Amino acid sequence: MDFYSFVEGPLLWIAFLTFIIGTVMRIAMFLAISRKRDQVMYRYFSWKYVFATLGRWLLPLNKDVAKNPVFAILVYVFHICLLVVPIWLSGHIILWEESRFGWSWSPIPESWADWMTLVLLGIAVFFFLRRLISPDIRLISTLSDYLLIAVTALPFMTGYFLTHGTLDGIAFLGDNMQLIHMLAGELMLILIPLTRLSHAVLFFFSRAATGIEIGRRGYSM
Amino acid sequence: MTEEINPKEITDFLKPKMGARFKTWVEICTHCGMCADTCHFYLASGNDPKMIPSYKVRFLKELLKKKGRVDKAYLEEIYKTVYYECNMCRRCTLYCPFGIDIALLISLLRGLLHSQGIVPEGLLKSIENYKEFGNQMAVSKEDWVETLEWCEEETAEELVGLKIPIDKKGAKIMYTVNAREPKFYPQDIMEVAKIFHVAGEDWTFPSEKGWDDTNLAMFASDVETARIVAENTFKRADELEVEKIAITE
Predict the structure, then answer these.
(1) Longest Cα–Cα distance in chain A
(2) Distance CA B108, CA B60 (A)
(3) Which of B177, B119, B169 shows the shortest CA–CA distance to B148?
(4) By the 8 A CB rule, do B10 and B63 touch?
């Protein structure tokens, strides 16, 4: 098996399984540990506050949007592009159709995918520069914060190069862009449960826990 | 300042307290900085980046990563931050997209320092007073009861028939005060006695530990003492079979 087949086959399985099992484990661990050490969460548990706080923060209805509208909206747009493009890209859906699962769903138009990718990359650059330039954010940033922005942007950048042949003139990159793109995507999937990218799932639990706490005290959620 | 610290003591303290929320919070903070300008220490210091709430709790992550292998100077650094740069108001929590409760993390660090014997002097004295006398001002039972008695005597000159009931079983309200009142401001006790008298309330003071409704041990995250202080009050209420506990303003 050559490297390409490995990346396309076994490594893809490893990446998806790490992502799925890893995130499920993170959730299971949160629930198991909280049963023992965060009883206050269960004693005052309220679906009302859980839904209220998740709604407020999944939609732009929270205090940060009012306080810092430009940054908050960019964060929302970034995350929407991050979820929509890889799932509804026609090129990806074709691969699901051809796979052993044979799953299929309607794609978004190519031009949307292109624009959303560029918007995401633009915002990623902004996040990166903001960390570098703002004295506040630079102080609290760690090396991993910079690296994780790169990890997140890389699949989108390589995907754009791949679909547009932007770098095809450069011998090595032109020949291997698909390989690089797959590796970048796999790296991100693997890192989601293992790094603070795990906020993809833990957001819901952390948000809910605090929603219960501040909701019952009558603070703004 | 290179006095050695026993790392095991630090990890033994932190580990059982790292619940699912604390673990998650330490892990997922993306250092977005939305908490920065919600902090009054940040604003009052002319936007000093060191006052960003997210930055102030870096210690917890570092302590866990270093497995407690830090020196005394490091703990002193934590002390400066958790006592002089945060009063645990929780405003940053309201603005954190993940709802990370920075104040609780600060509280955990204060508790760790307490376990290492690092507590502001005045606060430490109060904690000792709670343990010995059940109130922060080291007022003995004799002094407390005597104070109530002469307060009653003096106030009754103004309002004839006024009583300050002590240990009255089955009263509706058990009233509790800040220990500063018998110590420095007995006139507060007299004022409230007048109000209860004129309103015709059925009320009482307990003579035993539990009448001080402050709980300063909480501010050092000395959970054991804080628990005893709260339990004292409830114990007295049970003994006196009162309906309600009222606390001073």
Answers:
(1) 63
(2) 9
(3) B177
(4) yes
Is A209's CB within 8 Å of B34's CB? Answer: no
DSSP state letters, A174-191 = HHHHHHHHHHHHHHHHHH
- Which DSSP state fits B71? B
Nearest CA in chain B to A64: B95
Specify whether the CB–CB gap between B31 and A118 falls below 8 A. no
Residues 112-141 of A with CB under 8 A from B: 134-141
Q: Which one of B15, B23, B32, B92 would you mutate to disrupt binding with A, by most A Cβ within 10 Å of its Cβ?
A: B32
Q: Measured between alpha carbons, how far is A62 from B94 in angstroms, rounded to an integer? A: 9
* Distance of alpha carbon A208 from alpha carbon B98, whole angstroms: 9
Distance CA B22, CA B15 (A): 11
| Mutation to test the B interface, candidates A26, A57, A136, most B Cβ within 10 Å | A136
DSSP B221: T
**CB nearest A57 (choices: B36, B90, B97):** B97
Token code pair at residue A185: 């995507």
Q: Which residues of A touch B23 (CB under 8 A)?
A: 33
Is A218's Cβ below 8 Å from some Cβ in B? no
Asked if residues B214 and B179 have their Cβ atoms less than 8 Å apart, the reply is: yes
Quick check: A206 and B94 CB within 8 A? no
- Structure tokens, A181: 């793109």
Rounded CA separation A104/A127 (Å): 34
The verdict on ipTM greater than 0.90 is yes
Question: Which residues between 27 and 86 in chain B have a beta carbon less than 8 angstroms from any beta carbon of chain A?
Answer: 27-34, 36-38, 47, 49-50, 52, 54-55, 58
Closest-CA residue of B relative to A145 is B30
pLDDT in tens, A91-150: 999 999 999 999 999 999 999 999 999 999 999 999 999 999 999 999 999 999 999 999
Give the CA-trace dihedral at A210, A214, A215, A221, to 10 degrees: -80
| Alpha carbon separation from A6 to A30, A190, B248 (Å, rounded) | 34, 16, 72
Residues of chain A neighbouring B91 (CB-CB closer than 8 A): none
Q: Is the pLDDT of residue A171 over 90?
A: no
- pLDDT (0 to 100) of residue B1: 47
Mean of pLDDT values over B203-226: 96
Angstrom CA distances, A38 to A14, B22, B113, B166, B217, stand at 33, 9, 22, 40, 21
H/E element, A160: helix A143-164
Position of tokens 């109000």? Answer: B195
